[in-house]
């Protein structure tokens, strides 16, 4: 279920339920999108070559080892179709991104849940659950909805412990926001192994969620398999055009990152000062914990009346928590004020 987008009755609405960018896309991406509108009668380039080359230039990667998709969801689903079948097992963590069990079940495989520690993926728990049937391990790094991450050393240890027939899928949708020295999005591990892929998205820092655009970097044999089964035009022409402009506009990416680096700790601090527990996040959202499910639901309704749409995350086995995207300054301040009013405290 996607995040809600309507708050009936509220004069002004702030959608903070889907981890979208509060600053929107690069103006250059919007211009490229509009320009692409002049050519809607044409099929897109089915290989998205210019986009793959632009991504390759930006990250120093071979464009032949990149495949693009209609959002990273598309790529996760294609991986499931290519590598999972009846009787196989795919591991994800307790509060891992919900697309993973959906992908596994859709392919006839069994999702296997590895417990987390402090709302963080735990390498030992994942490795304990590997069996001869395991074909895939999904790791969101950072994870949604917790915002926590696993260090590069731990990801390497996870990879080392996996048999070679298991594909490690590192979903780095929020990589651009992370400011930790011990974090690596996955590029290095993909470059040096045959059973690791990394998925990325244009929906978050690039602010292009509406266009549905993602990419994956992987070993040649995996890229080949995905290219064989994907739709011939799985990425549309305006998305390709906007994606190239977005990936090249490093100044806009930095602007969005700076905004997040300023307001993420502010939210964690201010909400913490109200006496609510906030999971330490490295992404563009925070997970706020309440004493129980009823209070979380009441708070959600209270915020909704003020046009502040957060996300209840009961489906993620976190019924007593609300997830909030880092918003504009106005939205962030309004949420803290509303939480304080709800709790009967001064902000
Ligand atoms: C961890 C994670 N992976 C993947 C996605 C999907 O992103 P996309 O819009 O590229 O399909 C999301 C979206 O919220 C996410 O949180």
Describe the protein's architecture and organization.
With 347 residues, the protein is of the alpha/beta class. The chain contains 12 helices and 13 strands. The chain has helices at residues 27-36, 49-59, 71-83, 99-106, 123-128, 152-161, 187-191, 220-229, 237-248, 250-273, 293-305, 329-343; strands spanning 14-15, 66-69, 89-93, 110-114, 134-140, 167-171, 196-201, 214-217, 277-279, 285-289, 308-309, 311-313, 318-325. Strand 3, helix 4 (99-106) and strand 4 form a beta-alpha-beta unit. Helix 2 (49-59) packs parallel to helix 9 (237-248) and helix 3 packs parallel to helix 4. The structure holds pyridoxal-5'-phosphate.
Structural topology:
Layout: E1 14-15, H1 27-36, H2 49-59, E2 66-69, H3 71-83, E3 89-93, H4 99-106, E4 110-114, H5 123-128, E5 134-140, H6 152-161, E6 167-171, H7 187-191, E7 196-201, E8 214-217, H8 220-229, H9 237-248, H10 250-273, E9 277-279, E10 285-289, H11 293-305, E11 308-309, E12 311-313, E13 318-325, H12 329-343
Parallel strand pairs: 1-11, 3-4, 3-5, 5-6, 6-7
Antiparallel strand pairs: 2-8, 7-8, 9-10, 10-13, 12-13
Bound molecules: pyridoxal-5'-phosphate.
Index terms:
single chain; 347 residues; alpha/beta; seven-stranded mixed β-sheet; four-stranded antiparallel β-sheet; 12 helices; 39% helix; 17% strand; globular; binds pyridoxal-5'-phosphate
